[in-house]
Amino acid sequence: MEIQGSGFSAGLGAIQSGQRMIQKAAGEIASNTVAGTEGQQPADLTSILLALQAGKIQAEAGSQVAKATDQMIGSLIDTFA
Questions:
Q1: CB–CB of 11/46 below 8 Å?
Q2: CA 37, 38, 41 angle in degrees (round to 5)?
Q3: C-alpha distances in angstroms, 50 versus 8, 17, 62?
Q4: Which tens digits make up the pLDDT trace of 17-72?
Q5: How many CA atoms lie within 13 A of 43 on its CB side?
Q6: SS3 sequence, 14-50?
Q7: Which residue has the higher pLDDT, 40 or 75?
Q8: Is the pLDDT higher at 76 or at 6?
Q9: pTM, whole model, 2 decimals?
Q10: What pLDDT score does 16 carry?
Q11: Could you tell me which residues come within 8 angstroms of residue 56 by beta carbon, excluding any fewer than 6 positions away?
């Protein structure tokens, strides 16, 4: 049974988007740690950490959406079984 356009797909999309945000922020933190040479402006660590936290929250929210959708589908199957 394939469910198209479901909340499950939206949840997975949010998880993936959160992962991309986390990877980007982690990469920026790593590159600023390594590239501490003179003449380069250090990145605003606060904004990078906020992006990292936002990615975490987005991934967690997507997880909750997928979980709620899974529970709802399970309830529907139980009801019709």
A1: no
A2: 90
A3: 27, 15, 18
A4: 999 999 999 998 888 766 555 555 666 788 999 999 999 999 999 999 988 888 88
A5: 18
A6: HHHHHHHHHHHHHHHHHHHHHCCCCCCCCCCHHHHHH
A7: 75
A8: 6
A9: 0.73
A10: 96
A11: 18, 22
Check if the beta carbon of residue 43 is closer than 8 Å to that of residue 28: yes
Token pair 């356009």: residue: 5
CA distance 42 to 6: 42
What type of residue sits at position 72? M
pLDDT value of position 37: 54
Q: How far is CA 49 from CA 12, 34, 40, 53, in A?
A: 23, 17, 19, 6
Picking from 2, 21, 4, the residue whose alpha carbon sits closest to that of residue 61 is 21
d(CA 21, CA 51): 7
Which residue carries 């986390």 as its tokens? Answer: 22
